[in-house]
Amino acid sequence: MLPIKTKINDRFIYFLIEPNVVLAYRIETHNYITVSDLRDMNKCETFEINDRDDFETFNHHERQGDEGKAFFVNQEDMNKMVEEINKHIQKYRHLKGLGNQSGAVHIVTSESAAGSLRVSLERPKTVIGFPESFSIGPLWKLHEKIGQSYRNEWLFENINYEQENYEYENKFINTLREIEDIANNVPIYIWYGNNADEQTGLRFFLYLLREKTNEIFLMNATELYERYGTNEEEQPYLHTSQMEPKNLRLFYENNNEKKPLSDRERMQFNQEWEKLSETKEVLRLWIDDEIKGVPEYHYDSLIIETIEKLHHKQGTKDYIKTGSVIGEILTQMDAYINIFFLEYRIRHLVYSGVLALKGIPKSMRHYSVKLR
């Protein structure tokens, strides 16, 4: 199969997806897209041409679109198309100055926490949420393409993120672009908590920002909550994503006197990231104020003990929904834990013969387990 050819015409990108079919994609936003966005055919129009040579002179303004034309694009080619579109969006952002923020930039691990910050903080602002869980998966050379591919492969083979192929990869790369696009004249706030996920993310973000001269402020939500927070239910907050928007706003408003990171502090964090990026563990915990790698089977005994306890409650041993097992584990934890990693370990215990399976393990909602 011939590779898809591309061509730019102002705010349109043309893709030659078949020898005589051109897909014209209209860029209507300065926000980066993913494969799921590309499926929105309202931004696309197809045209029929005579052959591949006609593509060089093709202009959709001079043609009549073919509304009834059906076509197929495989996932890999669709991902390549997304990359081409995003490269053009980034060029357009820089050309039009759309990448320059007029207010502070806030960076946080978790799209959920990013949503809370967008709601709670006043404009103007830019919020960048990493679609990541840095407590799991390899970190080896993650700041380089080779490391990103290595991590993507591990996640694809082991973690059920319940989203389209390449969606995670698109979001990750798009977030790197957003950080690259940060203007040099705005302050940057990095939000994090005392858990392996956000502490690792903090060091990764600072490494990505190492060439930027912006003032950078750290917002430790765990410590700020202890100082200013209000939690009527008195439940422990293990991650910034669990905190209410009103608390995040309160933290920001009461932290105006905080000084930006010094060059020495930034260098220290960068060195810590460089050490982390040489590791290949796939599970990390926050222990004694340090990020520590542990064996991937670290939670296996807890999973088995939890299922035993649930069997005892049943009276007779029967299958238990995987989501219920994970929910029960979470009630016992006093530290943040990634639910998708727990599901991965439950599948591993199934494959290794410790647990019996009922259903199809395509997500934690689709199967049940019991001890053999």
TrEMBL record:
InterPro entries: DUF1835 (IPR014973), DUF3658 (IPR022123). Residues 257-367 form the DUF3658 domain. Residues 105-220 form the DUF1835 domain. It comes from Bacillus oleivorans. It comes from the Bacteria. This is Uncharacterized protein DUF3658.
